[in-house]
Write a structure and sequence with these properties.
Length: about 130
């Protein structure tokens, strides 16, 4: 089709990371709201500063992938997307809640992360120079 516009794989991957990040933010916001409404308190298992530091590092994986998906060379980019998606799936499932909103959002996140893995795995370069 001559009207079809081809989108660079880097743009696709980067955009998927943006969607995942937005979903992660909303999952957390909704979880906080549910907790505040139901118990009028917010409990975090473990020592709060350590848990938040770990969460900050892990949450930065999809944030950094927005940038890295656009700038890394082909081989490193493919590997980074696959590894980051796997770690992010573990994070999403590991922090799971059984509340309906979280199950819905986490399901979407995992599907999109699997789509990132699939796209990165099958990505064959035609424009990037191998260095």
């Amino acid at each position: 089709m001559k009207d079809e516009v081809l989108v660079d794989i880097r743009v696709k991957l980067s955009t998927l990371w943006i969607v995942i990040l937005i979903n992660m933010i909303f999952a957390d916001i909704f979880s906080i709201l549910v907790e505040l409404v139901n118990k009028n308190t917010l409990e975090i298992p473990g020592e709060v500063t350590l848990v938040m530091a770990i969460a900050a590092i892990i949450t930065n994986i999809p944030i950094m992938m927005i940038y890295f998906s656009r700038v890394l060379k082909y081989k490193v980019n493919r590997l980074a997307n696959i590894v980051a998606a796997i770690f992010t799936i573990i994070y999403v499932i590991g922090g799971a809640s059984l509340t309906p909103h979280y199950i819905m959002i986490a399901t979407i996140e995992v599907i999109l992360l699997l789509l990132i893995i699939f796209n990165a795995w099958k990505w064959k370069t035609t424009t990037d120079k191998e260095i």
